[in-house]
Amino acid sequence: MGIDETSPVSRGFVGRRRSPAQAERVPPGQYVTSDFPVLSAGPTPHTPLEQWSFALQHGTKRLAEWSWPQFQALRRTLVTADIHCVTKWSKLDTRWEGVTIDTLLEAAGLTAAPTSYVMAYSDGGYTTNLPMADLLKGRALVATKFDDTPLPPAHGGPARLVVPHLYFWKSAKWVRGLSFIAEDKPGFWESLGYHMYGDPWKEQRYAGD
Amino acid sequence: MAWRAAEIVAVRDEAAHARSLVLAVDGWQGHTAGQHVDVRLTAADGYQAERSYSISSAPQASQLELLVDCVPDGEVSPYLTGEARVGDRFELRGPIGGYFVWTPEDGGPLQLIGGGSGIAPLASILAQRAVTARCLPTRVLYSVRTPQDIMFKERLEGWRRDDPVLTVSLTLTRSAPADWTGYRRRIDAAMLREVAFETPDKPIAFVCGPTTMVEAAADALVSVGYPAERIRTERFGPSGESI
Hints:
The structure holds 2 protein chains of 2 kinds. By secondary structure, chain A is mostly beta strands. Chain A has helices at residues 20-23, 68-72, 101-107; strands spanning 31-32, 53-58, 61-67, 77-84, 89-100, 117-122, 127-131, 141-146, 149-150, 160-162, 175-181. Chain B is built from 5 helices and 11 strands; from the N terminus they run βββββαββαβαβαβαβ. In chain B, the strands form 2 sheets. Chain B has a 6-stranded antiparallel sheet. A 5-stranded parallel sheet of chain B has the order 9-8-7-10-11, sandwiched between helices. The two termini of chain B are 34 Å apart.
């Protein structure tokens, strides 16, 4: 994408230039906010912790499942990352705490993921598809804390997926599990015109980008 | 998705801080009520900025209309609500969004809840309904801070006139004139019990506005019994801002 030679100049528009240091960290078409906007398709679910669990699923087979206390006992990882929402805002240096997908596989006794893709699924019916490779090597967390405090429901609490290198709709709020799938297939937004992969640096916002 | 050239063909003030931009867009293929577009502005030196705005015009309209509310410390909206004038050009692409949408086939009844400029996609839905589904019972609940913040006032009044199955309820959250007969508080469950469809009617709710307002209104809908899958939301703006 980047600068299109044919773009008409908007008379009188100056805009707000970013510092070179910031420009390097902000993908095309994004702007930096210090705020933390909330985007969701429906009302915010409020799942009591005693009813919460996180599962790894393969077809009808449950490979592993953790209750909230069991999940809290897993090895925790801190991640500081820039996040990029498809609605154009980026937020720099966000601090998350949770359990990496590597740790979950290990705790489930899996030496490797059984398939190359997963569908993350959430309370409220939300789903999003991801390549397994994007979730491994510490690139993804199931986060339960943001900025050292429990994740509020509006931001996806009690737990959300955090995959900072992809547009943030891939970081499913209210996540309850990962379902291993043999072939990639669209989740909620992906079947409504959004990109299957969602790399912010390639500006893969919508199908065909 | 391709970027298209857009030219401003008319501007209309909707409130002190908000403007409708009427656009002629090259090769525009139409939209579904509720959708939005991405707008891209280019400065003389090639610097570009992108933002998203909801479409407020009817899907049948020949020209696209966007409602832009000025974010005081924003980068794009102060330009679009201030400097920009008829004949100015930028780019847009879309339409975008496949969930916060309504077509006559989706039926209803329609419970529309807006806050501030969140009325924009609801106006597109109301315009669509006025053309193709006038018998569909529809209720609008619109929350703004002061009377001066009511956008599309005449349009709302026009739709409501002579339409026995459309109601429009307003609530003013900051200041109201002495003779104001509408609500004077933020949307809550008690208000919904009074003016919203009851759940046996199986309404579809569309809620659009600033984040805090949408969170509160959607939670209130759930608390009065609306099933989550019948509540579609569109949140925008800073997370702390409310109406």
